[in-house]
Amino acid sequence: MFDKIEELERRYQEIEAFLSDPAVISNQTEFRKLSREHSDLTNLVTAFRRYRKVTDEISDNRELLSEPDMKEMAEEELKSLGTEKDQLVADIQLLLLPKDPNDNKSVILEIRAGTGGDESALFAGDLFRMYSRFAETNRWKVETISASESERGGFKEIIASVEGEGVFAKLKFESGTHRVQRVPETEAQGRIHTSACTVAIMAEAEDVDIDIRPDDLKIDVYRSSGAGGQHVNTTDSAVRITHLPTGTVVACQEERSQIKNRAKAMKVLKTRIMDKIIQDQNAKLAADRKQQVGSGDRSERIRTYNFPQGRMTDHRIGLTLYRLDSIMAGDINEITDSLRAFYQMEALKAQSEGN
Question: Domain 214-277 belongs to what topology?
Answer without folding.
Answer: Double Stranded RNA Binding Domain (3.30.160)
